[in-house]
Amino acid sequence: MSTFLAKPADIERKWYVVDAAGKSLGRTAVEVANLLRGKNKTIFTPNVDCGDHVIVINCKDAVLTGRKGSEKVYFRHTGWIGHTKKVPYGELLANNPTKLMELAVSRMVPNNTIGRKALTRLHLYSGAEHKHEAQKPEQFTF
Q1: I want to staple 6 with a disulfide (CB 3.0 to 4.6 A). Which of 24, 43, 80, 90 is the partner?
Q2: Could you give all domains of the chain from N- to C-terminal order, each with its CATH number?
Q3: Structure confidence at residue 55 (pLDDT)
């Protein structure tokens, strides 16, 4: 029995809407990353980009469990010596919730060309409104 390998012509991309309201940020990011990679499909092939488009709404209503809001810190470096910027996750969720969701999802996809291409299909909105009704997205629940 031979192994099926998907070709780019075999891939049909769908649009999904994921509502993050009241759900854990990390668990939502895991499901979104799997949809972006196409791991939920039967034709999944690791070296082919076979994922779907994902719209995440209500990012501002995602939940950080435990004490992550005050104790977990997002670090970034400016490029200058000693210039590390630290922002607590709770503050980042309050000020820029789409950035926090993007960081969580981007760290769950591969760090290569397939992962970067998958992140272009991620659409994040802090509220319940989005501008992709014309694509007729399906509601994805987990």
Answers
A1: 43
A2: 14-63+97-139 (3.90.1180.10)
A3: 98
